[in-house]
Amino acid sequence: MHCYNLASAGFSFNNRTCGVFAGYTNGLLTQDWMFEEGLILEPFLCYQATPNFVQICATYASAEVAQEAADYIAANDFALVELMWDYMRLRRYLCGGQGSLQFSSESDCISPLLYNSRACALDQTPFPFCECDKTPGSMPFGIDYYYSEPANSKFCFTVLAVPANDPTSSCGKITTVKKVEFYIQDAVRRQIKSVVDKSGKTLRTSWGASGDNTFKVTPLSWTLPQLTAAPQLICIITTGAELSDLCVGGGCTASVFDDAQKCCPTSTSQLEPVVPDDAFKPFA
C-alpha cells in the first residue's frame, strides 16, 4: 500500500477534506497513463482524517510504479501539488509552509518525498469594522472553510464548535454565539431574498452602516453545547445571483461574535469544490 499524507499544524481538516484530496489524486492519475495500463490496482481512498492530518492510500502494481507516480507528482518543483491547493481551495490556509505533503510506502525501496508549501501573500481584510479579536480560534466557535450550494441560489455556511487557541482567555471562555456578520456588498442587498437555518427557520438579518458592506445575522444565541452536538447552518438564499459575486473580495468572509462583541474570529470560506464523477475509477 502506498499513501500520501497531507498535514498542517495550523489548519483543521475533516473527512470532507480527505475525500476531496482522494478524488483530486484519482482524477489526476486517471487523466494520465496509470489507470489505463493497469498500474494502479486499487484507487486512492481516505484512510485517516484528523484535524491536522489526512491520509489517502492506493495499491500500485509494484514499488517501481509507486516511485514513478511520486516522481510524476514531484515534477516541475511540485507544480501539481500547488494546483491541488488551488483545486481544494485551501491555498490561503496551507501556503507559507503551513501545509506539507509526504509520500509513504510499505516498500523501503522508494525514495522519501516531502513537500512544504510555498510562501504566499494574503490580502488582509479590514472586516469587521470594530475593535475585537479577529484571530481564528480566539473563541471556541468558527465557520467551515467551505460553504455549499445544496440548491440553486441557496448558499449554506456551517457554524461549528472548534478548539479555542487559549481556553483560559476571556474569548476562549465564551459559550454563546450572538451573531455572524458577512462581508457582502451594500449595493447588492436586494439580491438576498432570505436567510434560514438548517431546519428552514427564517433568521433575522440587518445591514450595517452605509458603505460598511456588512450583512448581519442576529440574534442567534447558539450555545457551545448545541454546536458541539450538532453544527448549525446559515443559508443565504439569493434571487439568482452567485454568492461569490455578492461578497467582497475572493471567497466570502464572515465573523462570529460573542455578546460583548469583544471576540470576533474571522475567516474566509470558499465554495466547496465538486469532485468529478470519473475521479473514482471503477475497477473490475
Automatic annotation (TrEMBL):
Which domain of life does the protein's organism represent? Eukaryota
- Which Pfam families is this protein grouped with? DUF3707
Species annotation: Chlamydomonas incerta
Tell me the ranges covered by the Pherophorin domain, including all copies: 127-265
Full protein name: Pherophorin domain-containing protein
